[in-house]
Structure formats: C-alpha cells, structure tokens
Amino acid sequence: MALKMIFKLGSLALVLALSPALRADEGEALVKSSDCLTCHAVNRKVVGPAYLEVAKKYKGANAATIKKLVQKVKAGGAGNWGAVPMAAHPALADADIEKMVKWVLSRTPQAVAAEAAAAAKAAPAPAAAPKPTASEGAKKEEAPKGKKRRVSHLANEEPEETLAFSTDEEVRHLMEKQDCYGCHSGVRRDGMAEDMPWPSFAKIEAKLKNGKDLQPIVKKIHSGEGKESWGKIPHPRYEHLPVEAVDAMVAYVAAGKASKGLEAKDPNAMGAEEWMRKAADCFSCHAVNVKNVGPAYKDVAKKYAGAGPAQIKALVKKVKEGGSGNWGNVAMAAHPNATDAQLEKAVRWVLEQK
Questions:
Q1: pTM metric for this prediction
Q2: CATH superfamily, domain at 147-254
C-alpha cells in the first residue's frame, strides 16, 4: 500500500513537473493551427507585434491579466498595438485561447534561444555534398545579372521559380507574381479607377514624379524599416526577394510604367484568373495549392466538388457579401462592386482547380 501511494505521488510530481512544457507545446500547436502567424512572428513585427514584445509588455502577468488577454483575443479590436485591428476569434474555446496566450507570454529571448539551440542539437548533421568532377566544375557558370531565386511572400504555389528583373517585361511579370496588381491596380470592378484601399499605381506614380529619393521606399518594401507613406495598413515585406529586384520594381513604378494599360482595360472582358489577379484582390489572401490567409483553391474545389447551379449561386453570394465561418475566423472581404457574372466566372475557375 505504501509503495502504491509512493508511486502515485511520484507520478503526480512527474506530471506537475512536465505540465508547463506540455501546456507550452499545446499552446504552440494551437497558435500554428490558427491564423495567428498570418499577422505575427516571434521575433519581428509583421502586421501585429512580435510575440517577444508582447511577452515583454506582459511579463509576470497574473491570472486576471491573462483572463483579459484571452477575452481580447476572442473579441478582437484595436488600440493596444496600433490602429490595425486584430481579428476576432469567437469560435475558439477560452481554454484553448488561454493555452495560446500562455505560450506567447513564454516567448522570452532566453527561451527562444534555448529552444533554437536544442533544435539545432537535435537536427541531423547535413550530408557532405559530393565534390564535383573536373568536367562538372568546368560547366559551372555565373548566374546572369538580374536572375535570382525567390519564394513568394504569399507562400505561392510555385515556391522555387527562376525570376528575372533585367527588362521591363520581366519586372512586370515579377510584380504580377507578387500580386502587386491585386492591391494597387486601381481598376475597380465596374471599370473605374479607385484605391482599394491601397493607393493605385497611378497615384503612386504621380507622387514619385517629383524626383523623390526611392531608396527609403525600397528599404520599406524590402525589410519593413521606415515610416509608412500611405496610411496605417503595413505593406508586406519582401525579404525573400533580392533587394535589387525590389529596387527594379520601385523604379518601374516611378517611371510611370506600372499603371499603363490598367485603367483602360475592361474588367468584364478579362478571363477569370486574369480578373482575379489584376482587377480583384483574390490572390492577396489565396493561392492555388497552399493555404495563406484563406484556404487553398484546390481545397475549396475539393469541398465543393460537383457543385450544381444552386450551390454556385450561393458561393457567388458568399464572395459578394464576405464574412467568416466556413474556413475559420478570418473574415473574407466583401466584393460589393463585383458583378455577379464576374464572380460566377471566378467561382467556376476556383472549382476547376485540382
């Protein structure tokens, strides 16, 4: 009996000793499975603050403070960290949010460094690359100027594509692949120019005609450093691109080339994918093969496989009115200016993606 009691006490002590780590692991898993990392990172500001900064601000938080943070995450809103509101998370259970909050508050520099060191120690040593033969070595050539590798900021479905930015045509293609025209084209759904709510390329070009130094803009777009020039919505960072590519894109806009052919083109005459990329904002939140802010289009197609006219009509209405619920808590933007015909073409295109 005594031995049994000792065993039970020992087991309880072991559980209590391990429970903080277990809670931390569970909290991290919940954060990664939610939409949190769309707007946050551990060690740098994205749209929202870095988790290191949040942990620093709420260091030593008591139970009452943690409860307030849980309700803040659930209800959403702005004010504590700037004007950009945090999305509400009404579908998450309070107990799960609490685990997530506690994991965020455990993000100290020391903890992050220790975890990184442990992960590096546990990782298998990389295999040594085979030495090239004399003939293979002779075949190696220096990459042409303007040719680089890239990974899209939207976790694009083509993560490894050779890109080029030496000519105007190549720069424009690069900007299209980064979905720049989804946010700055200035082509409204009825064919009229507008800001959506980002400034149109025409407006940006007019501002840059005064001979303004472009390097601060390049730095802001590439690394996020510097002051916002166009309102309170942060611009995505393009650290995955070489700074020379960002420089080429900014120079292309400053030269008045980005807006050419945009506002004169009738969105109603565009094909579904072209309209979605160049006249709408679809690819700002979606990709074909991977989840970004919203679901991958192939997953949408899988969910609605065999959709009939009535279901397609319902999807058109959903895209037009926006809202959340079907794919998580991040609301899809409404598209009130898009015609039903344009939206139906887009919906049918999405449902064809396999």
A1: 0.40
A2: Cytochrome c-like domain (1.10.760.10)
